[in-house]
Amino acid sequence: MTPTILDRNILKVASPYSLQRTLCCGQTFRWRWEDGAATGIFVGRNVRLKQEQHRIRVEGLQKPEQLMALQHYLAVDEPLGIIEETLRRDRILRRILPHTTGIALMRQDPWECLVSFVISAFNNIPKIELTLERLCRRFGGFPSPEVLASAQARDLRSCLLGYRAPYLSEMARLISAGGFTLSEPAGLPYEEARKLLLTLPGVGHKVADCVLLFAYGKGEAFPVDVWVKRAVERWYFNGRPATEKRIRDAARARFGPLAGYAQQHLYYYIRGRGTGNGERRKARR
DNA sequence: ACCCAGGTGAGGG
DNA sequence: CCCTCACCTGGG
After folding, report:
1. At a CB cut-off of 8 Å and minimum separation 6, what does A125 contact?
2. Does residue A282 lie within 7 Å of nucleic acid chain C, judged by its CB?
3. Residue closest to C8, CA→C1'?
4. Nucleotides of C under 7 A from a protein CB
5. Which of the 8 DSSP states describes residue A162?
6. What is the pTM of this model?
7. 10 Å Cβ neighbour count for A101?
8. Both ends of chain A: CA-CA distance in Å?
9. pLDDT, tens digit, for every residue of A173-220?
10. Cα angle at A192 between A186 and A195, to 5 degrees?
11. Of all nucleotides in the shown strands, which has a C1' nearest the CA of A229?
């Protein structure tokens, strides 16, 4: 696919926005970063994104509405300057932000986000990415709830979902049968939306908070995984162990609607030295 | 062979 | 609520 001048377009972005950090901070699993650009699938099309200063060059989309949708998805309009200025009032984040600035919370599709994070449970990132690839390849694109609900057990098995496969089919059945409405959490306040998501099989506190944050725009959500737990205990609890609930409550009390942003910076920073953010590691398969 | 990895669900305080 | 434990699978 040789991109012509016709399928080339520009998205304008404001100052601290970083495409790489936004796509590689762990909120999505389906973009690959190599040679300073991101490749992935958006609205069913192969897309390549490259940031040059205050612009993002988009290859693979032509229709204005697709570009608008991408702009929304990438959240390039987030007021990151103000958000980060606010977060800098916290002395820990003030120290961390120089290394993490530019992360924007994206606006993902709830269903894809749900599936992705159910798969993420007790798993590792390269394997999550591979499993999602297999899932998309097997079903010719990201499978809808209907497709997944009626999928043969052996087809799911071939994606090597392991013990998560039944969670996905049950979830898909529930949704396609109308037992759960994907748009409903969007209109509810954080706590209620969370309770609702927790009724889904395979969705616990952590996955619920990820989906609330990455797909439903609930900024108070503060997903606590092992890394964030480690970070918060080390920097906010004086190295003392703390329960997941205590951490979550403390974060919401301290950061309010920006708890989710605080979480992303902490996560990105504590993981940054290791693997997983694409900034310090070679492109993965 | 054995351990670990972005948790969840079940069972029992 | 808090605690404990098993758990598909692939890579160290």
Report:
1. A26, A29, A275, A276
2. no
3. A162
4. 1-3, 7-11
5. G
6. 0.95
7. 18
8. 20
9. 999 999 999 999 999 999 999 999 999 999 999 999 999 999 999 999
10. 105
11. B6
